[in-house]
Amino acid sequence: MHATVSRPEAEISIDVRGALNLLGPTDRPVRLRADGSTLVLAAPGWAELRRLGPRSLRSRRRALAAAAGSLGKLGLSLAVEIRGRPALCLGAGVGSSFLARLLGLQAVDIRLSNLVASLIR
Fold first, then answer.
1. What is the mean pLDDT of residues 64-83?
2. Cα separation of 66 and 26, whole Å?
3. How far is residue 30 from each of residues 43, 62, 75, 83, 110, measured CA to CA in Å?
């Protein structure tokens, strides 16, 4: 993975390129791709993501808020895909969806229809 960092006065701008394949807790691969200012985390299912993050809903909400804020400050965005379909996006340039606003999250777009569809499969 390659990262280029420039430091303007108030913000850090990061350009990232590369790919990282992780063996998830269920022995199925979780992939992180980076191209410029966009990161994509692709997981085969929700089980892999649930086991990688905090257990409680409150802790997950805090982690999403912290990640969205940090990514935004760095000028990066993260798209999370489940089974190849967009599930959520957070960070720089991302508007908050209705569900994200209900959860008190800013700069997070939760795709409810894709979440439901990925749970049904």
1. 92
2. 26
3. 5, 22, 23, 11, 19
